[in-house]
Amino acid sequence: MVIEISAEPSASRCQTWRHRREQHLRHVEKDVLIPKIMREKARERCSEQVQDFTKCCKDSGVLMVVKCRKENSALKDCLTSYYKDPAFYEECKMEYLKEREEFRRTGIPTKKRLQKLPTSM
């Protein structure tokens, strides 16, 4: 009876390790970069409240602190609901991981890659 022992790790173990490494987030990614994406997306999703608050501030001038409390509160509630939503965090995290993977593959940051795309054919 002959038993072969391979020095190479199995492919499934390598894939699992690679997947874990790709999913690992550094402190700055968890606490700075993903929340930045969350803020940007939350502002897009709360665009109506952002517009209302902006309009109120422009119309009120110096008295905006007093006059725009209702709009400010509505905007704050909308944004906070997204910030506290675990599903929204996961969505933004997956978007970040996708961007990071693309950067590691190409070496081109997302912003520059998007700028290089032709605007018309």
Automatic annotation (TrEMBL):
PANTHER family to which the protein is assigned, alphabetical: COX ASSEMBLY MITOCHONDRIAL PROTEIN, COX ASSEMBLY MITOCHONDRIAL PROTEIN HOMOLOG
Classification via InterPro entries: Cyt_c_biogenesis_Cmc1-like (IPR013892)
Endpoints of the signal sequence: none
Compartments in which it is found: Mitochondrion
Protein keywords: Disulfide bond, Mitochondrion
Species in which this protein is naturally found: Capra hircus (Goat)
Family according to the record: Belongs to the CMC family.
GO cellular component, one term: mitochondrion
PROSITE patterns: CHCH
Protein name: COX assembly mitochondrial protein
